[in-house]
Design brief:
The complex is a heterodimer of chains A (about 240) and B (about 350).
Chain A (H helix, E strand, L loop, with lengths): L3 E4 L4 E5 L6 H13 L5 E6 L3 E6 L6 H13 L7 E9 L9 H8 L3 H10 L1 E7 L6 E4 L14 E4 L3 E5 L2 E4 L4 E3 L2 E5 L20 E6 L2 H12 L6 E6 L1
Parallel strand pairs in A: 5-13
Antiparallel strand pairs in A: 1-2, 2-4, 3-4, 5-14, 6-7, 6-13, 7-10, 8-11, 9-10, 9-12
Chain B lengths: L3 E6 L3 E5 L19 H10 L8 E5 L4 E5 L2 E7 L4 E4 L5 E4 L3 E5 L3 E5 L6 E6 L33 E3 L11 E2 L12 E5 L8 H9 L2 E7 L3 E5 L14 E2 L4 E3 L7 E3 L6 E2 L3 E5 L4 H5 L6 E2 L1 E3 L2 H20 L2 E2 L8 H6 L2 H7 L3
Parallel strand pairs in B: 13-22
Antiparallel strand pairs in B: 1-4, 1-11, 2-3, 3-10, 4-9, 5-8, 5-10, 6-7, 6-9, 12-23, 13-20, 14-15, 14-21, 15-18, 16-19, 17-18, 17-20
Classes of the chains: A alpha+beta (about 240), B alpha+beta (about 350).
Chain lengths: ~240, ~350
């Protein structure tokens, strides 16, 4: 496996597998993320096409880590990683989908076709970033690919389902944002009190399951009182 | 009764910070922690705490606090910062020494003119619940510290111990040397190839100023624009603290403790860890210059900085007692309350 090592100061090293958003590159990134163990290693952070390796220069050096990583990458790949498929309830109706009509207009599809395409695809979680628990998922069906909004919103509501470029995402917190909002989910993506604070892990998969506003409200009530259990199943990576 | 500091006035942006919460960046949680980890650790050493105990980080303007504990031992660290104790004719105690204050005492923290931040440590630490292993406040996701936010008037900051222990106060043997005006050291990359050779030369040959748009996430730098070679959109990747990212405007942003874990702008260089506390102290309007060094040199500087801190802590000396009576030890040892309570 040919990789590039890039220094990010004296406490982090980037292992770059390529320069594009690509499932095969993502698999390599996530495999190294799962398998790298070394003294002085603080944590590893996967992104679309590279892995950032944070280290403690009081314990190890960037050169020593490069060496350890090169040896690991030269070995035969081990067993493929596994993940979880999450079935995420999404309401694509009315107030939950402020940009659905515009997305339809820009793509030449009816709102119903946009929803059908978005909810028929199983998405790979490439990485979490931007906000705690925020998943970057792909790839969108090509017909839904749009640039970001020219005019970013100051306030995107918690739980918004958004699309931009070849990706889709869910906002775990209210925040500013420039993606197109086509639905919302009542599930809680991040909770620091949970044993696993982020619901998703990079490498997991997500399938959106359309629900109406009534079902959204009842799921939200169950989420708020702690009785909701999201549907999930194991997948082979 | 719970031991605490009552917040009479909060200051501009006072938060509970420790050395941060590494280990959760893969799920999008920034490390956070003190902007100036060196001063946080020094303040903790002065009150006898573990190095990374939670303390108050004070930015630009300081809070006024009231002691709501039998006694509390506190120390301030930060260039030029001081404590003003008492409302009328306040006693002024400089940074770099511990002192013990009795219940009801009111004190104000006055940051120095030369530094954006200073740290108030209290013996036993600030006793807020840990979130993901850390007390550090991360305002954007409302986690850590006091309800995940900066202090407000009326807040009660809980302390780890009910009264100061019976021992001498500690101080730095001499005032810390004035902050040198050496350029900030960087390692080029990880994306310097996205920039023209002139942009790299401009970064290393020009003076930049911290713009007013500076917070715990990062500081925008005013100066000559840094031009990209081709485009300024990269496939988002992870970000290291100290990274200098350059959006389309060409105006660099130096990313600090609360920076997002990932981002889509190229990073021309990364400030070395030994100089992160120096950068954290810079105020809006302050000048910055950069010089490039190798990773190996930066790693050696990190080890040197650690050794210097250990030596500084080892050299702390006891404050001579006035009139042979150390009121701190007296209060701390609970002798006064023991005598007057009459239970023996």
């Amino acid at each position: 496996m040919k990789v590039r090592f890039l220094a990010a100061g004296d406490r982090a090293l980037v292992v770059e597998f390529g320069d594009r958003i690509d499932r095969a590159l993502s698999a390599e990134v996530l495999r190294l993320h799962a398998s790298l163990r070394s003294s002085g290693l603080v944590e590893t952070v996967p992104s679309f096409r590279s892995l950032m390796v944070h280290y403690d220069p009081l314990v190890t050096t960037g050169t020593a880590l490069e060496h350890a990583i090169s040896i690991l990458l030269d070995r035969e790949p081990g067993s493929r990683s596994t993940g979880t498929l999450w079935r995420v309830p999404v309401c694509y109706d009315g107030e939950f989908a402020p940009d659905l009509a515009e997305v339809g207009r820009l793509t030449g599809l009816s709102p119903g076709e946009v929803v059908a395409l978005h909810s028929a695809t199983r998405y790979h979680i490439y990485m979490l970033g931007f906000l705690p628990g925020f998943p970057y998922m792909g790839d969108l069906p090509a017909r839904l690919a749009l640039p970001r909004r020219a005019d970013p919103r100051v306030r995107v509501p918690t739980g918004s389902i958004a699309i931009a470029t070849t990706l889709t995402a869910i906002y775990p917190y209210e925040s500013p944002g420039g993606w197109h909002l086509i639905g919302a989910t009542p599930i809680r993506l991040f909770d620091p009190e949970r044993a696993q604070p982020a619901l998703f892990t990079p490498g997991d998969a997500v399938q959106c399951e359309p629900v109406d506003a009534v079902a959204f409200a009842s799921i939200k009530t169950a989420v708020d009182n702690g009785s909701y259990q999201i549907a999930s199943e194991p997948i082979a990576g | 009764m719970t031991a605490a500091l009552k917040v009479l006035a909060p200051g501009l942006h006072t938060t509970v910070q420790d050395l941060g919460r590494p280990g959760y960046q893969a799920i999008g949680v920034p490390v956070s922690g003190a902007l100036d980890g060196f001063s946080l650790r020094l303040a903790n050493a002065l009150v006898g705490n573990f190095s990374g105990s939670p303390a108050l980080e004070i930015l630009l303007s300081g809070p006024t606090l009231e002691v709501a504990a039998d006694t509390v031992r506190v120390a301030l660290a930060g260039t030029g910062a001081s404590l003003e104790i008492g409302a009328e004719k306040p006693r002024v105690i400089g940074a770099g020494q511990s002192l013990t204050l009795p219940r009801g005492e009111v004190f104000q923290i006055v940051p120095g003119e030369q530094s954006a931040c200073c740290y108030l440590a209290a013996e036993g630490g600030i006793a807020v619940p840990l979130v993901l292993g850390s007390a550090s406040t991360y305002v954007r996701a409302a986690i850590g510290g006091i309800e995940g936010r900066a202090l407000r008037r009326g807040d009660v900051v809980p302390l780890g111990v009910a009264c100061a222990s019976a021992r001498a106060e500690l101080r730095l043997p001499s005032p810390p040397p004035p902050a040198g005006e050496h350029p900030i050291r960087v390692v080029l990359g990880p994306q310097q190839e996205y920039f023209t050779a002139e942009a790299v030369a401009t970064l290393l040959g020009s003076e930049f100023r911290v713009s007013p748009a500076a917070d715990r996430m990062g500081m925008r730098l005013d100066g000559p624009p840094l031009r990209h070679r081709h485009g300024w959109d990269i496939v988002s990747d992870a970000i290291a603290t100290g990274a200098i990212q350059v959006p389309g405007s060409g105006q660099p942003i130096l990313l600090l403790a609360d920076h997002q874990t990932t981002g889509g702008y190229p990073k021309i260089a990364t400030v070395v860890s030994a100089d992160l506390p120096v950068v954290g102290r810079r105020r809006p309007g302050d000048a910055l210059r950069f010089v490039a060094i190798t990773v190996e040199t930066a790693e050696a500087l990190c080890r040197d900085a650690e050794r210097r801190l250990v030596e500084l802590v080892a050299a702390l000396e006891a404050v001579p007692q006035r009139n042979g009576i150390d009121l701190g030890s007296l209060y701390g040892g609970n002798l006064i309350s023991g005598v007057v309570s009459g239970f023996e």
